[in-house]
Design goal:
about 0% strand
């Protein structure tokens, strides 16, 4: 029985592949953890607010959507990393760069998701009691989302090295 995948070239360090694939996994895992936390925490606030003011539920979905976008950032970088890992020409430098880019987008996505979840939960509950707080909540959410975007930008730069 033959091996369906060829063994890596002797000039390519096997640890490079480990770091590359860990970067790929880290990007998706940590970004999705942040997105899941942000979605869950904001969703609890939306459900609680919906009891008080059901007419504002659709406006209050914004934090949930913003949290979901964080997961997409991690997916983008994971796909880029996975697509650039080659069995024949993959150096340790590329492996470390891919690990760094995966951690950059993943951990910044985790932080952004946590911020979006906390602000979204408190913000939608406060908006139910005082609708004038809606614009302030959106501005804070935009700044929290920017944290994830910074990680995406850095990850794109690092992964293209």
């Amino acid at each position: 029985m033959s091996n369906p995948t060829p063994a890596p070239s002797s000039s390519v360090s096997s640890s490079a592949f480990f770091f590359g694939f860990m970067g790929c996994a880290s990007a998706l895992i940590f970004a999705c953890l942040g997105a899941a936390y942000g979605t869950a925490k904001s969703g609890v606030g939306v459900a609680s607010m919906g009891v008080i003011r059901p007419d504002l539920v659709m406006r209050s979905i914004i934090p949930v959507v913003m949290a979901g976008v964080i997961g997409i950032y991690g997916l983008i970088i994971a796909v880029i990393i996975a697509g650039s890992i080659s069995e024949t020409s993959y150096s340790s430098f590329k492996g470390f760069a891919h690990l760094g880019s995966g951690l950059a987008v993943g951990l910044s996505g985790l932080a952004a998701g946590m911020a979006i979840g906390i602000v979204g939960d408190a913000g939608v509950r406060a908006t139910a009691q005082q609708p004038k707080l809606f614009v302030g909540m959106i501005l804070i959410l935009i700044f929290a989302e920017a944290l994830g975007l910074y990680g995406l930008i850095v990850a794109l730069v690092i992964s293209s090295k």
